[in-house]
Write a structure and sequence with these properties.
Number of domains: 2
CATH architecture of the largest domain: 3-Layer(aba) Sandwich
CATH class of the largest domain: Alpha Beta
Order of helices and strands: HEHEHHEHHEHHEHHEEH
Largest sheet: 4 strands, parallel
Oligomer: single chain
Radius of gyration: 25 Å
CATH topology of the largest domain: Rossmann fold
Distance between the termini: 46 Å
Length: 273
């Protein structure tokens, strides 16, 4: 028996019927509706602030945010994004002088400008300058996503146990990934000293200047192959320009693209909070 019995019907009256219309939407339509609901019910998505350092890495991060936004929100859509950058030369002067406090001041300067522009949270698509992160986190006008911590989360999701780290010499020899991966219970390896010098040279002389040479790709692939022989089960592309040279198809190991991982995390935070 469904519902209550009908009430008495007088002569000449028709019984009333309730008609229910069920609309079935495709998964794509449901995704679009969910995205629209997010934007209308929450009034607005969170505004992403990009603290840029190198041009190529920042541009790749911005492009990835735009593409990921379209995947989440619909064609041509993405959260609001603002970007500020001091020159790479300013950063490198501090880094080469081991002046991480100076790096922190540059990052904070960008952070303050982005906060005034309306950014709700901040990201930095540069692995190396995260060495100054502890000097800025408590002074920052806005919260941050930490690139190495996001990479560590992704590595955990894939159950990787030992990662090879590629990046600038300062990144490979510094604490950024060592600390983030240790906290996640993941081992790591870095290339030999001579290899680190060559990897760094390719980044600084070629990749940051948008030069992507076949011989440099071959060198990186050989370094990754050696890391695989040392029982690494994935490689961190820990310089945000390296994914422009080394693709998943060319790598002997699964790649953890730090730029892509950070950009996707930023979109996820902007959309979901």
């Amino acid at each position: 028996m469904w519902g209550s019995p009908p009430s008495a019907v007088r002569p000449g009256e028709a019984r009333g019927f309730v008609t229910t219309v069920v609309v079935v939407k495709s998964p794509i339509e449901n995704q679009k509706c969910a995205a629209h609901s997010l934007k209308t019910e929450n009034c607005m998505l969170r505004h992403i602030g990009i603290v840029a350092c190198s041009t190529e890495g920042a541009a790749l991060c911005y492009r990835t945010i735009s593409l990921e936004g379209a995947q989440r929100l619909g064609p041509h859509d993405h959260p609001e994004v603002s970007l500020h950058s001091h020159s790479l030369a300013n950063y490198m002067q501090c880094i080469r002088g081991n002046d991480w406090a100076g790096v922190a001041e540059l990052m904070l300067s960008s952070a303050e400008k982005l906060a005034r522009a309306g950014a709700d949270f901040l990201i930095c698509p540069d692995n190396t300058i995260h060495q100054a992160f502890d000097l800025i986190e408590h002074r920052s006008p806005r919260p941050w996503l930490h690139i190495a911590r996001e990479v560590a989360k992704e590595a955990q999701r894939h159950q990787f146990k030992r990662l090879a780290i590629l990046g600038t010499r300062y990144l490979m020899e510094g604490p950024v990934y060592r600390e983030a991966l240790k906290a996640a219970g993941i081992e790591h390896r870095i290339p030999a000293a001579e290899q680190r010098e060559r990897i760094d040279q390719i980044i600084m002389d070629e990749l940051v200047n948008a030069r992507f040479l076949p011989r440099s790709l071959a060198y990186y692939v050989e370094v990754i192959r050696i890391s695989k022989e040392e029982a690494c089960d994935a490689v961190v592309l820990g310089c945000t320009e390296i994914p422009l040279l080394v693709t998943p198809e060319s790598s002997p190991l699964p790649t953890l693209d730090s730029t892509c991982i950070l950009a996707k995390a930023a979109v996820r935070k902007a959309v979901e909070g």
